[in-house]
Write a structure and sequence with these properties.
The protein is of the alpha+beta class. It is built from three helices and ten strands; from the N terminus they run H-H-E-E-E-E-E-E-H-E-E-E-E. The strands form three sheets. It has a four-stranded antiparallel sheet with strand order 1-2-3-8. The chain is rod-shaped.
């Protein structure tokens, strides 16, 4: 045994310290290949979808709200709207103009069809040179053709036929003056068979200077009547 192994006091010298243990090498955990592939696949599909969408938007001009862009027609913004200037006038219904002169037109009320053929104003007397009736103001004579469009005989009379002037005044036919027209007129209690027509005269005594707006003709006293405009003559 060597003396160097003992200390000065006869004890054993301490030996060199034991070597420090080496740290264990940390092995990195292995990646889970299954989930990584799935995430990569989803990301690739999303990227491809975005690229296709962008290409479609560019191809259509960036607008998907205009149906004409895909139909080959003109855009809706450039086509004039119906009913406006330059629009589709073929299908637009034009408003009917109000008739201001109904002379010569046929108007119907109930089972009668009326046609006013002539208006005569400023007549001072009706009858003959010996007998007749003089006007208080002036006589207005309305010449009218009455046709029975029903299937039964009906009676036409001068009653219920009202003349209206431009001041909205209403005049009834003069019964005495109408009696003097029976020789060449059939407006007094005349019976008309179906399909037949008669020509009559309706006589009104009105003030001088009266302007005539219309005449309201009736099938009977219970009918609604029809208004024939007279052109404010």
């Amino acid at each position: 045994m060597s003396h160097d192994q003992y200390g000065p006091y006869g004890g054993r010298r301490p030996g060199p310290p034991p070597p420090m243990p080496m740290p264990a090498y940390a092995v990195p955990p292995q990646k889970q290949r299954g989930k990584g592939c799935l995430y990569a696949f989803i990301g690739g599909v999303a990227t491809l979808f975005l690229m296709v969408s962008c290409a479609a938007i560019v191809a259509t001009g960036g607008s998907t709200s205009d149906p004409a862009a895909t139909s080959g027609d003109e855009p809706a913004a450039s086509a004039p709207a119906k009913g406006t200037a330059g629009g589709d006038q073929g299908t637009e219904k034009k408003p009917k103009k109000a008739v201001t002169n109904g002379i010569g037109r046929e108007y119907r009320d109930g089972k009668f069809a009326f046609t006013v053929t002539k208006v005569k104003k400023g007549v001072k007397k009706v009858g003959n040179e010996y007998f007749g009736d003089k006007a208080q103001g002036q006589f207005v004579i309305i010449y009218v053709t009455v046709k029975n469009i029903g299937d039964k005989a009906r009676t036409f009379t001068h009653h219920n036929q009202t003349l209206i002037d431009t001041k909205e005044r209403e005049f009834e036919a003069d019964p005495e003056a109408s009696l003097w027209t029976t020789q060449d007129s059939k407006s007094f209690l005349q019976q008309i068979n179906p399909g037949n027509s008669v020509k009559g005269k309706l006589i009104y005594d009105v003030p001088p200077g009266t302007r005539l707006k219309a005449i309201e003709l009736h099938d009977s006293m219970f009918s609604g009547g029809v208004t024939v405009p007279l052109g404010n003559r």
